[in-house]
């Protein structure tokens, strides 16, 4: 009789959060079409300068789940990197967010909206309920966290 090997563990599967970090470069201009030029200048200051400015953004993508008893992984981080390549690097790296990314044609390219955009792209590629958090560092001092609310 063929023996089948079954892994049976008495330990409850542990629940983990794993994060992959990715940087990308892009430029933008903070400008709202629903405001006057004067209001834009007043509100966004130097970030409203017509020719825009750049950032080296850093994104932290965190997924959640149980540790698989056979692989020891929540998810293969190599797979997560492929999803990040598709959802973040391809559309955003070395782009002008306002001119090259249709989403930002009528949405102010703040870090808040960028985090939402990245969440919406990532959630389409990941298994249900695995995406936990998107954290975007616009500068060393400006950081936004989005968890899908
Ligand atoms: C600094 C910059 O270069 C910005 O573009 C900043 C300016 N202020 C600001 N405030 C927010 N609440 N969200 C932003 O993305 C942001 N960008
Ligand atoms: O937000 P900014 O434009 O001022 O850019 P920063 O990286 O936060 O630098 P600082 O706050 O020191 O100007
Ligand atoms: Zn900026």
From TrEMBL:
- The positions annotated for binding Zn(2+) are 28, 53, 55
Matching entries from Gene3D superfamilies are given as: 6-pyruvoyl tetrahydropterin synthase/QueD
What reaction(s) does this enzyme catalyze? 7,8-dihydroneopterin 3'-triphosphate = 6-pyruvoyl-5,6,7,8-tetrahydropterin + triphosphate + H(+)
Name the coiled-coil region(s): none
Among InterPro entries, the record links this protein to: 6-PTP_synth/QueD, 6-PTP_synth/QueD_sf, PTPS_Cys_AS
Q: Which Pfam families match?
A: PTPS (PF01242)
User: Which molecular function terms from Gene Ontology are attached?
Assistant: 6-pyruvoyltetrahydropterin synthase activity; metal ion binding
Q: Does the keyword Zinc apply?
A: yes
Q: What does this protein do?
A: Involved in the biosynthesis of tetrahydrobiopterin, an essential cofactor of aromatic amino acid hydroxylases. Catalyzes the transformation of 7,8-dihydroneopterin triphosphate into 6-pyruvoyl tetrahydropterin.
Q: Which residues form the active site?
A: 47 (proton acceptor), 94 (charge relay system), 138 (charge relay system)
Which keywords has UniProt assigned to this entry?
Lyase, Metal-binding, Tetrahydrobiopterin biosynthesis, Zinc
Q: What class of enzyme is it?
A: lyase
State the pathway, as annotated in the record: Cofactor biosynthesis; tetrahydrobiopterin biosynthesis; tetrahydrobiopterin from 7,8-dihydroneopterin triphosphate: step 1/3
User: An example Gene Ontology cellular component term from the record?
Assistant: mitochondrion
Membrane-spanning intervals of the chain: none
PANTHER family membership: 6-PYRUVOYL TETRAHYDROBIOPTERIN SYNTHASE, PYRUVOYL TETRAHYDROBIOPTERIN SYNTHASE
Which cofactor names does the annotation list? Zn(2+)
Entry protein name: 6-pyruvoyl tetrahydrobiopterin synthase
For biological process, the GO terms are: tetrahydrobiopterin biosynthetic process
EC number assigned by the record:
4.2.3.12
Family listed: Belongs to the PTPS family.
UniProt remark on cofactor binding? Binds 1 zinc ion per subunit.
